[in-house]
Amino acid sequence: MILVGTPLSLHGRSEFAEVIHRLTDPVTEEWVRNFLSGFPLAHRVPGWFFDDRVREGAAMPAHACKAIFNGLCTAPPPTESGTIDSPTLLLWGARDGAFSIKEQETLAGRIAGAKLKVYPDAGHLVLWEYPERVAQHTTAFLGALH
Description:
There is one protein chain. This protein is mainly alpha-helical. It has eight helices and three strands, in the order E-H-H-H-H-H-E-H-E-H-H. It has one domain (2-143): Rossmann fold (3-Layer(aba) Sandwich), CATH 3.40.50. Strand 2 (89-93), helix 6 and strand 3 (115-119) form a beta-alpha-beta unit. The radius of gyration is 16 Å and the shape is globular. The two termini are 14 Å apart. Residues 67-129 form the AB hydrolase-1 domain. InterPro entries: AB_hydrolase_1, AB_hydrolase_fold.
């Protein structure tokens, strides 16, 4: 399992709750652009890539966005409802303003044998900022499982 910028839990986190709950159809590209811009990037991503994420976000109906968000905030965290025993790699950007290193270390500690890879110069959207590095680390992790 590969976890990228993953919270220990989203219970009690209401930073985006009001924004999501006010969402109505049609979800506009402007709304998605503003929402995604709330995740600061330590490094630029290609404009076409960001625009593609905006188009994908605008294609999702508001009720689906709300249901996904509510599910993430109300579901029991897997590390509290059972044991994760699959090999796990956690990737996290040290400039992540959403989730802390303490959360990452706690999460890694709750998954037997988990490996935590910190990207010192990345924000929350590690995959966006360093797709090549993420691919390399993922490939190496998966290759070591054989």
